[in-house]
Amino acid sequence: MITSVNAIDRNGDAQVNVQINDQHNFHFVMSREAIFDFLEGESEGVLSAAEALQQNWDQFRPALERVLRTYGTRFEVLTTEMLNP
Questions:
Q1: Least packed by Cβ within 10 Å: which of 14, 27, 43, 63?
Q2: Alpha helix locations (H) across 19-85?
Q3: For residues 68 and 15, what is the distance between their CA atoms, to the nearest angstrom?
């Protein structure tokens, strides 16, 4: 499903761009809280949210694909509640 990801830091959160099936780009914000809650605080204060997302992409990918199956692309901000149901 997700074939590439790019994330940059935006005011502490991660501005994310994912490519789906090598065809469609989807942009959204993943909150800092969602990223570090998902990682159970690992690397918080050491890495930015975007860096933590990219360095731990293998852990995030299945969860993010589940969010996309559940919500489609009808969201602008991915929250803790969406990532950790």
A1: 27
A2: 32-38, 49-55, 57-71, 80-83
A3: 16
What pTM value is reported for the model?
Answer: 0.86
Q: How many residues does the chain have?
A: 85
Distance CA 74, CA 57 (A): 22
**Collapsed DSSP state (helix, strand, coil) of residue 40:** coil
Q: What gap in Å lies between CA 75 and CA 73, rounded to an integer?
A: 6
For tokens 């694909």, name the residue: 65
Helix or strand (DSSP H, E) at 8: strand 2-10
- The DSSP element (H or E) to which 83 belongs, if any, is helix 80-83
Q: Residue 48 and residue 11: Cα distance in Å, rounded?
A: 10
Output the average pLDDT for the chain: 90
